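Q: Entry one of two.
A:
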Amino acid sequence: SSGINAEYGGDAKVSDVFCVAPDGSASFRGHHLNGTNSSLPDGYKGIVLSKSTTTTDTEEQKFTVTDTFDSMTVWSWDTAPQPLKLDNLIDIQNALHSVN
């Protein structure tokens, strides 16, 4: 037995294993992480969603926007991570939505 419970449905206690120091350095389970900040392109905003607490008998799930952001940190174990290149993804998204 590996001791892994793949059917765990509880909250992740991220703050117990992922620590960010005031100077911006971070560690995950005691291992140093390298981070770089990536800004979202002009005109775009990221959103944080929370699943609604109300439940119904339907398959439909509802979410509420709980926060927004305009940048995020990309983390890597052993190398300096590259900033996210979201412009290409946005070009693809715009092309897909322009097709009739």
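Q: Entry two of two.
A:
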Amino acid sequence: PLGVELNNYIHIDYHGGLGVSNMMLTHYFYSLDEGTLVMNLPFIKDTITFFKHHYPKRDKNGKILFFPTQSLETYWCPLPVGKECVTNDMPQISRLYAVLDRLLL
């Protein structure tokens, strides 16, 4: 179908926006260019909002449950999505922590 990635290696690789958001924040912290930060904040906000809505499930402690997901191209989630998919992949979680930590500074 149009707009659906069928490549098993990357079909649920969603953390690219977090990488770009992190680079935008890095640029700000090095340049202190507030105009560029203001211009980039909507993208960063929308990236965080995507994760909030795309992964609505929580574990028993109230933490986001990232499933289905995959850990880059190493542990990928075959189609159709099933229980063999990765849960809480480290690349996605570490990028989310990095972006949120910088936003709270």
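A: Comment on entry two: Helices lie at 16-31, 34-54, 90-103. The chain is about 50% helix and 0% strand.
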